[in-house]
Amino acid sequence: MGKQDPGSEFWALIEPYTGAVSAVRHAERGYSSDVTATVECTAGPMFLKAVRESGPHASSFAREAQINPYVRSVSPRLRWRLHQNGWIVLAFDVVAGTYAEFAPGSPDLPAVADTVNAIGAIDCPDVARDWRETRWDRFTDQASRFAGDALLYTDINPDNFLMTSSGVSVVDWSWPTRGAGFIDPACLVVQLVAAGHTAAEAEGWAQRCAAWQSADPEAINAFAVATVRMYQHFENRDPAPWRKAMTEAATTWAVHRGIVSARAVPGP
Which of 123, 192, 195, 258 has its CB 3.0 to 4.6 Å from that of 202, i.e. a possible disulfide? Predict the structure, then answer.
């Protein structure tokens, strides 16, 4: 089921930015927003994301707006932002593309891996200096290995990589952070295993990333273990099928690296 229309008051609020709205296509994906829609309007087509300022994702919208000027080489341009009447709205250029396919044999894989490498090549801007990556810290006693000065995206999944005629466009920069550069390629590895790759095949794609090539293998091992623990934690809190799949993928990867027993792999 698609998202519900936010109502006439919302459309009146943004009309000074859009002009008359002639068509709205609500996106089926984009689960953290109250509104995700492509809008045809007097000001030209634009993609809107909106949340209520009282909701849990308001702070991520602020980060996404702040980081956008620095990641436009791989992402759509933020055209305007609005924080008014209880709403936070971000309007982006429309990206005409299809969701990336991560499965083995997909023709999208080289471009996806190269885009992860391109993200790693973006200098971490001053605005992100205080956004230290900490989400894996509580699942390890080696958190210092995850520290660094690379700009991290971390939300790597097929829904956020759009294949266009000119390359890959990475959307939904909701939680960029600063940390060790190998973390984004490692996140790609887990997603590829979840999509059906062997762990060795997945690491082969990560090998296209400079930050992976230069990483300390022991730091990657520590991250793999922390990732297993993290997904196990979230699965225990909410055993949704996709959480179970991510736990299995992370565990398969850790087994491949020889740091988790095969007996720890969750059953089918």
Answer: 192
- The Cα–Cα gap between 91 and 160 comes to 16
232 and 260 Cβ atoms separated by less than 8 Å: no
pTM of the model: 0.93
Give 251-268 pLDDT, tens digit per residue.
999 999 998 765 454 433
* Ramachandran assignment for 258, one of left (phi > 0), alpha (psi -120 to 50 degrees), beta (any other): left
Structural tokens at position 236:
């225990």
| Neighbouring C-beta atoms of residue 101, cutoff 10 Å | 16
- Distance from C-alpha of 58 to C-alpha of 1, rounded to nearest angstrom: 24
Residues in the chain predicted with pLDDT less than 50, given as ranges, are: 1-2, 263, 265-268
What DSSP element (H or E) covers 253?
helix 241-256
Distances (CA, A) of 179 to 141, 223, 241, 246: 16, 12, 29, 22
- Pair 30, 61: CB distance under 8 Å: no
Nearest to 187 by CA among 253, 238, 234, 244: 253
Strand partners, 80: 91
Compute the distance between CA of residue 188 and CA of residue 193 in angstroms, rounded to an integer: 9
